[in-house]
Design a protein that fits this description.
Blueprint (H helix, E strand, L loop, with lengths): L1 E10 L2 E10 L10 E7 L4 E4 L1 H9 L3 E2 L1 H9 L2 H12 L1
Parallel strand pairs: 1-5
Antiparallel strand pairs: 1-2, 2-3, 3-4
């Protein structure tokens, strides 16, 4: 199963995260299938590759709880439902 989850990077006590598509059995900082965004919790900075995330969600990728909250704030799930409705 493919998961959308956070991959930690940055200095000690100054963590930033990349939002990645990765196999669910891979380790947290393992090699991702695709990097889809960036999240900095210290400044609440978020950059997302929305078309890539929508594509992965349509393919059945499951976001973790934290990534789901980030995507809800960015209204990504509305775009997923709009895209699937237009394809039907």
């Amino acid at each position: 199963m493919i998961k959308l989850r956070l991959k930690r990077f940055g200095k000690k006590r100054e963590a930033s995260y990349r939002i990645v598509a990765i196999k669910s059995l891979s380790r947290r900082d393992g090699r991702p299938l695709e990097e889809l965004g960036f999240y900095n919790p210290r400044t609440d900075e978020v950059k997302l590759d929305v078309p890539g995330i929508v594509k992965r969600l349509q393919q059945g990728a499951q976001p973790t709880d934290t990534v789901r909250r980030i995507l809800v704030k960015a209204n990504v799930f509305e775009q997923v439902s709009a895209t699937t409705a237009s394809q039907v």
